Amino acid sequence: MATSDCQAKIDEGLYSRQLYVLGHEAMRKMVSSDVFISGMKGLGVEIAKNIILSGVKSVTIHDMGSVHWCDLSSQFYFSEDDLGKNRAEVSQVHLAELNNYVPVFVYTAQLTDSFLAKFQVVVLTDSSMEEMLHIGDFCHSRSIPFITANTKGLFGQLFCDFGEDFVVSDPNGEEPISALVHHISQGCPGVVTCLGAHSHGFVDGDFVTFSDIEGMTELNGYEPIKIRVLGPYSFEIEDTTFFSKYEKGGVVTEVKMPARICFEPLRASLKNPTISLVDYDKLECFKTLHLAFQALHLFVKEQKDLPKPRDQLDADRLLELTRDLNNQTSFQDHLNENLVRMFSYVSAGDLSPINAFLGGVTAQEVLKACSGKFTPLQQWLYFDALNCLPEDDKLLTKETCALRQSRYDGQIAVFGADFQERLGKQKYFVVGAGAIGCELLKNFAMIGLGAAEGGSIIVTDMDSIERSNLSRQFLFRASDISKMKSETAAAAIRRMNPECQVKAHRDSVGTSTEHVYNDDFFQELDGVAVAVDNIKARMYMDQRCIYYQKLLLESGTLGTKGHTQVIVPFLTNTYGTASDTSETAFPMCTLKNFPSTIEHTLQWARDEFEGLFKQQADRVNQYLQDSSFLDRIDRLMDAEALEILETIHSRLVTERPNSWKDCITWARNHWQELFHNNIQQLLHIFPPDQTTSSGVPFWYGDKRCPHPLQFDSCNKMHLDYIVAAANLYAQNYKLPGSRDRNAIQCIVDTVTVSPFIPKSEVKIHVSDEEMKEFVKDVDQQQLEELKTILADASSHRAYVMDPVHFEKDNDINFHMDFIVAASNLRAENYGIPQADRHKSKLIAGRIIPAITTTTSAVAGLVCLELYKAVWGHQQLSSYRNSFLNLAQPFFVFVQPQQAPVQKIQQQEWTDWDRFEVRGIKKDGEEMTLEDLFNSLKTEHQMGVIMLCYGTALLYARFLSESDQQEALGQRVTDRVRSITGEQIPAHLKTLVFEIVCSGEEEDLKLPPVHYHIF
C-alpha cells in the first residue's frame, strides 16, 4: 500500500527505545502497514494494545459480540457499565488514546474477502474453525500474513502463516559479529585466523566482509563471502591463491543475508503441524493440545458453549471428540487424556496473565509480518500453565468454580471462589512503575490482587513521565508527561478495577528510605515485585526480601529478550546467588590511549563530558561552599590532591572565561589538546614502527596506530565539537552561548594555538596493572603554592559554577552533540568506523532497548508465578524461571535452583536462615552480650568468638581480657552505641549481627543473628 512521506516519518523521540530493537528500516515498513484484529476479549485487546504502541499505520478492530461478565477478568478496558455493549466499540475509545499516530477503526459486520484484502496483516482471536479456515485460505492465496491466536483458561495456541515466499531481512536483530584478523593464508580455500582471547563467534554458513587489511587488499570491500568454521579462532573462505600476500591488520564482519521462508496454509498445517518447542518437560503434550483445541471447536459447535468448569460430562465429551480426531490424523499419537480433561475443566476461564504472555508473543509476530525483521514462528506454538493449579487438585470442584456474575468470573472458572478471596487479601509491594511495572499493575488489577478488605498494592517510583516512555508504558498518556509515574499508574489501574486498593509512593528504595520501608512495612507484606532496570536496586531488594523472608518476583527485558525469576523463601536460591550481577567495564588504559572500537571512543567521550562539565564544576563548588574541603584534601595522597587543586585553580583563575569569545577559545584549545597534541605525544613515545621487547610490532592487533588531526573550521565535525564544547563551557559559568555557526567559525579562525612540543617526562601506561603500580612524582612546591593561593575561598565566592547533568533525550542541549563529535573525532584519530547520532546515543546514554511486546509477555509470566505463591506451593517443581527471545522465537522454562544448603556441626543452613533472639528478657531487662552468647550456646550449641554489627567489631576473642569483660557486661544496644558512636535509628526493631563461632577444625561463619529489641 502506498504511503505518503509524512505518514512514513518516524517520531524518534517517541519510539527511541523501540528503534534500538527494530531499527529504522523495520519501523518504516511498520508505519506503512494496516493491521486487522478480530476478537476484543482479553487476548485481542492485549495484541491491539501492543501493536498500537509499536506504531503501525493503522489498526482495525472487529467483534460482533457484546461484553459479558467473564470478559471483565482480563479485558482491562471493560467495566460493569459496559455489559451488553459491543466489545469492539467499547475498546476503540480506549485504544485510540494509546498513540496519536495510529488511528483505530471499528468494524462490527461479517467479514468478507474484499474487506480483508486491504490489510497487510490479519489476526483472528476467538474465531470459529470455519472462519479461520476460510480466512486462512484467502490470506494465503493473497500472500497476506495470517495469524490466529487463542487462549482458554491456562492454555494458549498461536499459528502463523506468512505465505509461500516470506523474506526475513534480519533473523535475530543482534549486532553483526566482528573479529580482528591475525592471518589469512594464500590457498584454496583460504584460511582466516582471528586474534583475541575469545572465539570469533561465527558459525557455518555465515557471510562475512573484510576491511582494513594490509597486503591482501583484494578482500577489502569484497562482496560477502560464505564461510566454513574450522575452530573457535579460524574459518575457511574462498580461493585466495592468487591474492596478494597478507601482511597485517584487518577486521572481519558478519553480514546479515536475507532468508526466504515458505509457510503452509492453516488447512494443511492442521493435518501436519510444525510445532515450536516451548517447554521441554512437556514435549509429549503439544500434539495432544493440537487435537484438543480442534476438538474444542467441535464441542462448541455441538453444545453452543464451552465446557463448564470442572464438569465431568463435558470433559468426557471433549475427550471423546479428541480421540476421534486422533484416529483420523496421519500422525496418530499417544493422547495425554488427563491433559484433555484439564483442558476441558479450565477452558471457560479467561486469565489476564495468560493473555498478557500470548498477547505479547502474538504482537511480536505481527510486527515481524509487517517488517520482515526477526524470525517468524514456524508455525504453531502451544503453551500451558497447569502448574498454577493447586498442588492438591481436590481443592477445586464444580461448585467452587461455578460462575457467579462477578468481574472475576473468568478467573474463578479456573481457580475457584476461595482462591479469589485469598488473592484479594494479599499485600504486595511493587518497586518501579516503568514498562514492566505498568504491565504488572494492570495484571494485578485484573486478577484482583489486594482488591478485597485487608489487601493492598503499594507501588513506588521516584521518576516522572517522559515522552519516550509513552511507546511502551501504556498506563501513561501525552497529557501525563511530567507527572509522577507511580501516582499516574495507580490512578489508571483504579479506573480498570475500582476495587483495587493501590497506594502510590515517590520514594526510591535503598538505605536512605529504610525508615519508610521499615520492619512494620515489610512484615505486613506477602511479597515484592521488582520492576526496575538496574542491578543495584535488584540486589538491594533481594537483600531486603532475604532479611524479611518474603517472596520476590523479579523480571527484566532487553529488547526482544526477557527473563523472570521467582524467589521463594526457604525453597529457592536468591537473586544474588542465581544471577550474574557483574557489570563489565573497559580497561582505563584502553580508553585513555588504545581504543579499538566505537564503544571505547563513546565511553571516552562520555567520561570527557562528565569530567569537563560536571565533576570539575562540582569540585569547584565544594571548594567554594564547604569550609572543610581543603582539610579533606590534606588527607589525600599528594598526587590526587595536586590534581584536584590544579583543576580548581584552572577553572577559577587561569581558564575562567569572561565572555562568549573566551569559551570558543577554550574549546579550540581543548580540541587541539585532545585530537592533535595528545596523539602526537603518544606517537612520540610509541612511534609507528615501535616494537616490543620480543620483536613484535607494538601497534598490532587491537592496538590501532593513531594519527593526529589538523583542525579545519570548514569540517562539520570539527565545528560541531567547538559549538557544543563552547556552549557547555559557557553554561558552567552562566554565560550566554550561541548557535550561530557562521559567527562561531569566524571567531574560532582567529584563535592562535600553541605549537606542539613533545614532553620526554610523560609516562603512558600500556595496561591497567602498570597504571596502578605507577607512583607519580609530585611537585611539592607547586602543591604548597596552590594550597596557599586557594586558602581563602571567599575571594572566589561570586563564581559558583553550574554543573551540567547529562540528559540524552534532549536534542537541543548540546550534550549528545558534544559526545557524538568527540567520539567520532577520536575514532578518526584511530581509524575506527564512526557511529551516527542514533547509535552513539544508545551506547553513551546506556539506553536499554525496549519494546512493549516483550514487556507484556514477561509481566504475564511473572503473574503466573504469583498464582503459585498465593496457593502456597511447596514443591520446587511447581515453579518456573523463564528466559525468552521473541526475535527467534525462543522460550526456556526451567525449575528454579534449590537454596544451597551448608552443613555445619550437624546442622543445615541456607541463605534464608538466621538465629532469632529476643533481646528483652522475661524480667523486662535487655540482654547483655554475655546473655546473648549464652543463649546461642544453649539453643544452638554455638560458641561465639567474634561478633560484628556491620563494619563495627563488638567483640572478639583476640581483645584483651579486660576489654572482653567490659564488652560482655554491656547491654547489647549499649555496646552497639558505644562502638559505632551513633544512636540506633528509632525505626529499627531488629539488629543484625554477624558471628564467627569456634569449630572443631576451623572458625565457622554462620547465619546472621537477628536480635529483636522491641
Automatic annotation (TrEMBL):
Species of provenance: Geotrypetes seraphini
Catalytic reaction list: ATP + ubiquitin + [E1 ubiquitin-activating enzyme]-L-cysteine = AMP + diphosphate + S-ubiquitinyl-[E1 ubiquitin-activating enzyme]-L-cysteine
Ubiquitin-activating enzyme E1 C-terminal domain residues: 879-1009
Keyword annotations of the record: ATP-binding, Ligase, Nucleotide-binding, Ubl conjugation pathway
Cross-referenced SUPFAM superfamilies: Activating enzymes of the ubiquitin-like proteins
Protein name: E1 ubiquitin-activating enzyme
Enzyme Commission numbers on file: 6.2.1.45
Pathway: Protein modification; protein ubiquitination
Gene that produces this protein: UBA7
Keyword Nucleotide-binding: yes
